[in-house]
Amino acid sequence: MEQKSKAVVCREINQPVTVEEILVEPPRRGEVMIKLAACGVCHSDLSATNGTIPFPPPVILGHEGAGTVVAVGEGVVDYRVGDHVVSSFVSMCGKCRYCQTGRPQLCDQAAKAATTLPDGTLRTRDLSGKPLNVFSGCGVMSEYATLHIDNVVKIDQQMPLDKAALIGCGVMTGVGAAVNTAKVDAGSITVVFGCGGVGLNAIQGCHIAGARMIVAVDTSDAKLQMARQFGATHVVNSKNEENIVKTITKLTEGGADFAFECVGLGEIAAQAYGVLRKGGKAVVVGVAGLKDMTSIRTASLTFGEKTLTGSYFGSARPREDFPRMIGLYRAHRLKLDELITRTYKIDEAPQAFADMTAGRNARGVIVFD
Ligand SMILES: NC(=O)c1ccc[n+]([C@@H]2O[C@H](COP(=O)([O-])OP(=O)(O)OC[C@H]3O[C@@H](n4cnc5c(N)ncnc54)[C@H](O)[C@@H]3O)[C@@H](O)[C@H]2O)c1
Ligand SMILES: [Zn+2]
Ligand SMILES: [Zn+2]
Known about the structure:
By secondary structure, the protein is of the alpha/beta class.
């Protein structure tokens, strides 16, 4: 049976999101229908509404969701009605060269089907019958969603679903950038640019890895306050700095071993690279606009053996790493409760996006009835 569902839709670029009733088709072969419990609002959702991430509208937003399986399609053996799951905005086909070499975050299938399910089709329509795209195979800012099991990870029933949702993007992306991509080691000197939902998690990733110094950089004092709570040892408001690279080089007595760009601007990527000491690694986590460029001093790569790299979804292997995050949370090593600044009902989604634009929350989370 087709399911009626309220969903958050980007109808037009640079316009507020709409909350509308849509229709969700039951799962086909290899798919499950999920009743969502919670969905975080990520900056990437906002970027889809302003064209920074070029997803053709109309598109159902949301890629940081958790809920309960309510229907399973043909051929699905690993999932049952009642299972608790978290969405994965990278799909894991298990067959491509990236999946086969332990890098599902780079799965070819995800790249091919950015705004549909992996087979290129959609299970979502508006009430006039027009198909609605979905954000990265997910579109989980919706009461119900049908996803392919390649975009779903089963989790422990005891884990609260609102906290689990955050693992589906912000937590995995930030913590993973530090522990998986950068492989921060104990005693490292680290710098994190941007202390939103992703950056705060990069900070706690550095903390979990045993960094000795974690410098948080942001333009908002409120965010820097939060950064301290997540493990930052030093905070710098870059608005007050004439030359942020110089300030941080001095503060770190020669530069950072690891620096993370968690804003989404080439200019900040250059700053992250600029604060490295010899042998250092800068990791670009933010998603910049397609025309955005960065520039670095080429010779410094050679003489300083520096690395500039990217991190997608925290280089996660979601089926292994989501339970790892849950384990860290249970061991009181990973903060999730503190990330949720505010919850919203789905009808309040436009406010949640306005608050994201204004930088009011660590994370805002839409909670479903
Ligand atoms: N790589 C991935 O897989 C992945 C996954 C999720 C999100 N992202 C991207 O990560 C970025 C951050 O996402 P988020 O949800 O944390 O966003 P957010 O809006 O919650 O946080 C961004 C932070 O950057 C700060 N900031 C803005 N301009 C700054 C500047 N010039 N210098 C320092 N700080 C500045 C803001 O005050 C804010 O605290 C976005 O670009 C998002 O698209 C990437
Ligand atoms: Zn995200
Ligand atoms: Zn694959």
